[in-house]
Amino acid sequence: MSKSLPPSSPDTPMTTESEPLLPILNNGGSSRRNVMKGVGLTLGLAAFGKAISPLATIPDNVSVDEFLQQHYKELTDDDKQEILARLESEAKEDYGADVSITDHRPIPGVKFGYAINLSKCNGNGKCVEACHKENNHDRSTGESYIRVLEMDKGSMDMEAGNTTYDHTVPQDDKFYMPVQCQQCDNPPCVTVCPVEATWKEEDGIVVVDYNWCIGCRYCEAACPYHARRFNWEEPTIPAEEVNPEQSYLSNRIRPQGVMEKCHFCLHRTREGRLPACLEACPTGARVFGDLNDPESDIVWLLKNKRVFLLKEELGTQPSFFYFFDS
Questions:
Q1: Nearest to 150 by CA among 119, 176, 116
Q2: Cis bond leading into 54, ω under 30°?
Q3: How many CB atoms lie within 10 A of CB 316?
Q4: What residue stretches are annotated with the 4Fe-4S ferredoxin-type domain (predicted)?
Q5: 246 DSSP β-pair partners
Q6: Cis ω before 170 (30° cut-off from 0)
Q7: Shortest CA distance to 225 belongs to which of 285, 165, 177, 274?
Q8: Which residues of the chain have pLDDT under 70?
Q9: What are the structural domains, with CATH classification, of the chain?
């Protein structure tokens, strides 16, 4: 069962017309403060204040400059370089690790897609482990962007799927279905975000600006695939386990109080490499590629295999596919 935000208390500051969220004037442009104030007026001040409580004040680990940073898509190249340098410095200070954080942009003309062969997946969980390490997840929780559901053969009842099995796999009467972000073409998580902290990029990847996210968790509630994660605690990662190859919109260490999700390892795939989960799969169940390339493996299987979409009836139009050998 998902946790809920703690109830607001009498001491929790609320947004009102006479008492703005932050007592800081903005000298123009689209700041987080202006966006949040506008959304508050749209939703109703009391409802919006309750929705973001206890995030109505700047967290101790976030500077005013970081909190009021312009939207990622509005930043100049110089702005981005300053922010990346600051984040690298913070990683060194907080985790004792030397990291390189890059701004990986989409490859022109490429539309990424992913597919899993359910005839080959045996539930070994190596993809989950690889995601955990590659994406600098909190070590104490064992978090990952991937869940592997152990399902009864002949059933597609995901609610009955077991993600905490610890017995030998595969079981004869079961099949295994990994679930992660489906990178939808019609993503409900993007639609509900009140501050536009998440969006779909040109190559099909839905991303999150962790510096812009206010942690309201609307996107988590809207996602029908349970693909969003919320950082309840400050992540703990030993310096020697930090993956130093990072990107602003993917696997840099996320701060407490923000949402995160699978991003198709864009720090790898936008460099022409494969997702970490695919490379770790020992059964060859995973296929990744460019949906715009008629010669790609994923286009071939979409034309030649019995393919289905998860929860197709919802109209999310996933870029994630499942298929069987027969």
A1: 176
A2: yes
A3: 22
A4: 204-233
A5: 101
A6: yes
A7: 177
A8: 1-65, 67
A9: 15-57 (no CATH), 104-326 (3.30.70.20)
